[in-house]
Every structure is written in C-alpha cells, then in structure tokens.
Amino acid sequence: MGQPPSPPFAQHLGSRLHLHLLALAFNVLLLVVICVISSQSIQLQKELQALKESFNNFSSSTLTEFRRLDSHGGSRDDNLTSWRNKLEKKQQDLKADHSTLLLHLKHFPLDLKILTCQLAFFQSNGTECCPVNWVDHGGSCYWFSRSGLTWAEAEKYCQLESAHLVVINSMEEQKFVAKHIGSFHTWIGLTDKDGPWRWVDGTDYRSNYRNWAFSEPNNWEGHEQGGSEDCAEILTDGHWNDNLCHQLNRWVCEKRRNITG
C-alpha cells in the first residue's frame, strides 16, 4: 500500500488550486467589464443614429409640407400658423433628445474611468484606485455617509473599513470635503477628549492646517444635555466647530489608496 501524500504536497496543491480560482474569477470580472463598456458604446451609437434619422425625417416632412402649401392659396395663413406650432414642438423635442444624448456622452468617460479603476482595484488587491462608492482624491479614498452617528460610532465605522475619520491637511482638501458634504454638519477626525486637540491618525495638530469658525473651539458647556464639546465637526459654511461628541452627525472616512480594503 502506498504512503499518503505528505502535508507539504497537499498544501502546495491547495495553493495552486486557489491561484487558479483567483485567475478564473479575475478573467470573468474582466469579461463583464468589457461587455458593459461595449454595451454602453453600442447604446450611444444607437441613440446618435436615431437622432440623425429623426432629423432627416423631419427635414423631409418639412420640405413636403412647404411644397403642399405652395399648391394651396386660400388657407395658407392658417396652414402656416399650424405648421409654425408643429415646428416649435419638433424643435423642442429635438433639443431634448440632443441634451439627453450629450448627457450620455458626458457621463460615458466617467463610467469608463470608474470601471477601469475598479478593475485595477481588484487586480492589484486594493493597492490601486478606491473601493466601490469611495471617492479618489489626492492619493486618498474618501467615503461620505448619508446618515448620522455619534463621533465615536463614526470613527469605529471607519476603522471597520480600514480607514479613519477624515484628517484635513490643507485648504485644497478642505474645499474638496466641503464640496461633497453639502449642507450637513459632518464629523472629522479631530478631538480633545483625552487632553489637547489631536488628529486620529497622529498628525500633529499644532503645525497642521486649521479652519475653525470665529471664536471656536470654545468648549461651550451651556447645552441642556450637559458635558463639554470635545469633537470637531464641519459646519454648513465649511468652518470647523467643536460639539458634543454624542450628537448625531454625518461623517467622512478616509484611507490612503495603498491600504487594502
């Protein structure tokens, strides 16, 4: 009776099988991306062709109608009024179709960029581009919430995504974040709960960019809930404010692009 395979051989065989499965999954993903891009391209070509045919048909019918009007004398004014209304309606329809097509053409490069980026993300095991629904900017990936949590809950959420609450290092980054949060108070990764103000990623607070509102932070203690203001938020005008950490705010997560999600 032969000896059973040694454990190293079984481990090697399992490793090779795992690599083959990963390669197969990647090839399937690549095929899906190619199909999606091809489908969008074909759809745009169809819409453009339909717009051209609509315009050609309209031109032909217009010419026919004017020839018909030339052959009738008495009711020409009434016919011209009716035809003018038809012309205006058709012009509006053509403008709407043209605007829709331009919108598709405008979004197509972005859709292609997103698909290409996601392909690179999976191919590089998360070291290139950003995960789905994260925004790529300045070498970092940002995720903007659409609900509210306390500051501690928001930071915990970000940590579960291998990230942290956003750390704002420049005016340019401040403008980028403010542009995406809209008219909502939003937590950032700045707190003085355990002493002086500090950023959650260890960035030095004293030498880093700051954008506090006038007279802030003031650690106001006049809230009915009690307690002190130990967590930083971005206000609707973009300036920072210290607030009670148990308030429910939206939040922004940030992670460097070379961190695997």
Automatic annotation (TrEMBL):
InterPro entries found in the cross-reference section: C-type_lectin-like, C-type_lectin-like/link_sf, C-type_lectin/snaclec_domain, CD209-like_CTLD, CTDL_fold
GO molecular function terms attached to this record: carbohydrate binding
Pfam families: Lectin_C, Lectin_N
Coiled coil ranges: none
PANTHER family: MANNOSE, PHOSPHOLIPASE, LECTIN RECEPTOR RELATED (PTHR22803)
Keywords, ordered alphabetically: Lectin, Membrane, Transmembrane, Transmembrane helix
Organism annotation: Myodes glareolus (Bank vole)
Name this protein carries in UniProt: C-type lectin domain-containing protein
Membrane-spanning intervals of the chain: 17-37
Lineage of origin: Eukaryota, Metazoa, Chordata, Craniata, Vertebrata
Domain C-type lectin per the UniProt entry, residue ranges: 137-254
